[in-house]
Amino acid sequence: MKGKYKAAIALLLLLILLPLTLMLTVAQWLPTLAGLWLPQGTRIAISSSPRLTRHALLLPDLRYFAADCELASVEKASLSHPSRWQLNVNTLKLNPDCISKIPASDAPPSAPRTLGQWQAMLPRSWVSVDNLVLTPWEQYAGALKLNLTPARQVLDFKGSLLSLNAQMNGQSVTIKQLSIDALPGQAPISLAGQVTMPLVPDGLPTQGRVTARFHLPQAPSVADAELTWRENSGQLLVFSADDADPLLDLPWTLTAERIAISDGRWRWPYVGLPVSGRLNLYVDGWQKELDLMQFSGRVSVLTSGDAGKGNAVMTIGPGRLSLTNTDMPLRVTGEAKQDALIFYAALPATLSGALLDPELRFAPGALLRSRGRVIDSLNLDEVRWPLAGVKVTQRGVDGRLQAILRAHENEMGRFTLHLDGKANDFLPDTGTWEWRYWGEGEFMPMKARWDVKGEGEWRDSTIRLLALTTGFNQLQYGSMTVNAPRLTLTEPVVWRRDEQASSFTGALALTANQTQFSGGSVLPPATLHFSVRGPEPTRFQYSGDLQAGDIGPVRLQGRWDGERLRGQAWWPKQALAVFQPLIPPESKLALKAGEFYAQVAFSAAPGQGFEAGGHGVLKGGSAWLPDNQINGVDFVLPFRYSNSVWHLGTRGPVRLRIGEIQSQAVARNFSADLQGWYPWSEQQPLLLSDVSVDVLGGSIVMQQLRMPQRDAALLRVQNISSSELMTAINPKQFTLSGRINGALPLWLNHPQWIVKDGWLTNPGPLTLRLDKDMADAIVRDNMVAGSAINWLRYMEISRSWTDINLDNLGMLTMKSSLEGTARVDGKSGTIKLNYTHQENLFTLWRSLRFGDNLQSWLEQNMSLPAPCAGPACKEQQ
Questions:
Q1: Burial 838-849 (b: 16+ CB within 10 A, else e)
Q2: Mind listing the pLDDT tens digit for each residue in 403-446?
Q3: Strand partners, 529
Q4: Using an 8 Å Cβ cutoff, are 58 and 75 in contact?
Q5: CA Rg, the chain, in Å?
Q6: How far is the CA of 3 from the CAs of 9, 17, 680, in angstroms?
Q7: Is 336 in contact with 314 (CB distance < 8 Å)?
Q8: Contact yes or no for 753/759 (Cβ under 8 A)
Q9: Which of 240, 381, 713, 803 is a good FRET partner for 262, with 20 to 30 A between their CA atoms?
């Protein structure tokens, strides 16, 4: 009994421990056991053992390999059966590229199951995958839910870029909603439709209709697509919502050997270059493996422009597409026309390599050319892009990149530019592109020739302009000639396009030899040094300085934010004499003393234009001419410029003060203030005010001149010394002493007058003395006039009045009335003299030397005074 008892206990322990051991070691034996039913060359791997709970079987992870390629991986799966089977998976990753690693089976094919048989095998179940990832399209990951019964299958997928809701009932598949966010910035593509699956699911659906709505780039409205088919033929149509003619019309047929798209039509009528054409595409052996299929086709492109119609053709194949070794000949020939431009193409090429990583290589003889008119006056004589040997892959462009441009502009002249370089797997911000460029041309408006030469590179995310030199032999414009201006790099221009730490730096120098002016003045050789610092070319700060000989340096600094250029310029205080080279030698003007400085802030932007504001100051200026001197000049110019209007005197008026002007007459204490806008208007007038100068022992004063003018500006002559005036003009025929007052109403925009109703008078006695020789000559030549002229040898004028008018043709009219006492040979007599003078203003100065004119007038118009009688006469005698 004891032996039987021990055997029973051992058997019981074995029955208890064996399942427990199998459960604890499932990660070791289950992959081997599953390998008996898996396809040859595949296996599964489990790193953590499954766990069985009261309600579910938990599988922490499972990976499925085809050779060494991970075809699928499962994380955190659970299987339960509340009312039907329910499979929940946290993450499922699939890699379709690994399917090609599964070797073909040698077993004879079994009888195919119908779609209904496959559906009947489905258990009533729910499948939920929280995160389904399909390599290499990870961006379309999302959550998958399946509701499966033998009669109906429902699929629901939701991701950030892709969502799908579909239902299958027997052979009928209804796509309720498919949305794909394919292009950034564009609305998602939406698709719906219904298809009928074949009885045996080993081919394409037998019939169906699918519609889609999506946005086309640059198209004004949405597009609708419709795909219909029945048995072995169908049609794909794409329409724009506002156009009855289709954008794409592809009729297709399907046979056991060929897929054919024959006489397809397409067009693109929107922005840029309106094009249209035909399309034929054939796939032979389409049911074979991809490597054994043969592709061929032809696409034509029809364009039109001012130069007529152009036709280009792209020939495809015959060739093959392969996941590992594609060999597809391509050739583009013909011409395209846009506006007045014509493009010519002869581009043989071959598409090779893996289908997922293809390589397009241009064959010898590949050349793209263009000619025509870009704008009304710029004509492209020829542009050439040789492309032989250039290779294009997903990694970028590789090979020699060249371009040659020959053109002419009707007014500017002819020019030629060359570009030559080498690219190595270049795409923007990846790979390398090294280049050099050179060229020359004419600049006919300034009678100049120019040249340019430089080199640079684009290496990964860094663009470097390593060398640049460009300039003119001269620039001649009007009376100015700039000799040999040239722009060069003093520090490479470098743009690092790193999103985290981008930068943009560089420095240039603009130099020129002497700038000559026709008057003989010269600007010394000038240099502008200029540097930039910032995160990118659309946002940087700049600084520089400009110097021409002893003039300057003018310091510049500012910033550019992509929309507005802002800056400031400082002209340091320096002697006025440094500007002497700018004064023509023939003027014989010498700058002797004074200091000048200025400061300006400016900005420029589209829509705003150029704006500036600042001030310039001249202190203690002095300039000498052979016969004149101007000393003690102080000038302050505050200003603002905006919308082509100068606002003068923004913080106080523009002030001009001159201490002394030494000429024929010395003038002192000249002052004038200016404030307002130029060009002026009624709303924004320009005011010249507080004008005064001490001259000829008196003063000349003008309170205000307003432009546009409403009233005359009154120019007052106050207490002028006639003796000082005589000293200044130095007439030999007479002298005059005493004081003069007057007023001249000044008009600048009157339709007839410049001075209207002006006057001069004497506030006190005036004394007139004729030259003895002149008087004696008149007496000898004309006895009658000689008797009268004797009374003017010495005359005391007690009252005088002169009316002055000056019209806008320059005609000056003066009417004078004099009254006084003449004394001759101890006798005295009352003299009344009326004098009218009219002469053009342009000869006024000569007429003001009126001694000779006065002598002639006196001879012709002087009459003897009336005989003196009475007590008054006796007193005068």
A1: ebebeeeeeeee
A2: 999 998 888 889 999 999 999 999 888 899 999 999 999 988 88
A3: 509, 545
A4: no
A5: 51
A6: 10, 21, 131
A7: no
A8: no
A9: 240
Give the burial class of 349: count Cβ atoms within 10 A of its Cβ; 0-12 exposed, 13-18 middle, 19 or more buried. buried
Predicted model pTM:
0.65
Type of residue found at 422:
K
In the chain, pLDDT over 90 holds for what percent of residues? 29
Distances (CA, A) of 698 to 273, 307, 713, 717: 79, 79, 20, 8
Residue 547 CA to residue 542 CA, distance in Å, equals 17
State the amino acid at position 151 in one-letter form. A
Neighbours of 263 (CB within 10 A): 11
| 297: nearest Cα among 276, 280, 312, 310 | 280
Q: Nearest Cα to 634, choosing from 690, 679, 578, 576?
A: 576
Q: Tell me which residue of 855, 740, 836 sits closest to 792, measured CA to CA.
A: 855
Could you give the C-alpha distances from 632 to 106, 374, 638, 656, 668, in angstroms and in order? 113, 59, 20, 10, 10
pLDDT in tens, 706-759: 999 888 999 999 999 888 888 877 777 778 888 999 999 998 888 888 899 999
Other CB atoms within a 10 A radius of the CB of residue 9 amount to: 10
3-state helix, strand, coil in the chain (%, to 5): 15, 60, 25
Q: Residue 876 in 3-state DSSP?
A: helix
Confidence check: pLDDT of 568 > 60: yes
Q: Scanning the structure block, which residue is given the tokens 């005068």?
A: 876
In the three-class reduction of DSSP (H, G, I as helix; E, B as strand; rest coil), residue 787 is classed as: helix
Q: H or E element: which one contains 194?
A: strand 189-196
Residue-level pLDDT at 34: 43
Q: Is 432:421 a contact under the CB 8 Å cutoff?
A: no
Report the alpha-carbon distance of residue 726 to residue 851 in Å, rounded.
11
Spacing of C-alpha 676 from chain mean position = 33
Residue type (1 letter), 301: V
Which residue type occupies 813? T
> What's at 38, amino acid-wise?
L
In three-state secondary structure terms, 769 is strand
Give every CB contact of residue 453 below 8 A, 6+ residues apart in sequence.
437, 438, 439, 467, 468, 469, 470
The pair of structure tokens assigned to 857 is 């007038």
pLDDT at residue number 648 = 92
Hey, what are 86's tokens? 């329910």
Owner of token pair 């026309």:
337
SS3 107: coil
Cα 38 to the center of its chain, rounded Å: 65
* Residue 651 host element (H or E): none
Q: What is the pLDDT of residue 441?
A: 92
Candidates 232, 215, 218, 301; CA nearest to 265 is 301
Which residues have CB under 8 Å from 186's CB, separation 6+? 214, 215, 217
| CA distances (Å), origin 717, targets 194, 696, 739, 791, 841 | 104, 10, 10, 30, 19
Place of tokens 């009312």: 83
Pairing, β 391-393 against β 357-362: antiparallel
**Residue 798's closest CA among 821, 817, 779?**
821
* DSSP bridge pairs for 439: 417, 452
Split at pLDDT 50, 70, 90, the class of 671 is very high
Name the strand (E) or helix (H) holding 683. none
Cβ atoms of 662 and 632 within 8 Å: the answer is no
Q: Assess whether pLDDT exceeds 50 at residue 22.
A: no
Would you state the structure tokens that stand for residue 512, as one six-digit string? 């020129």
CA distance 577 to 582: 10
CB 432 within 8 A of CB 423: yes
Q: What is the end-to-end Cα distance of the chain in Å, rounded? A: 194
Average pLDDT over residues 169-183: 82
What's the CA gap between 526 and 509, in Å, rounded? Answer: 10
Percent of the chain with pLDDT strictly greater than 70: 87
Do the strands 51-52 and 56-66 form a parallel or antiparallel pair, or are they unpaired? antiparallel
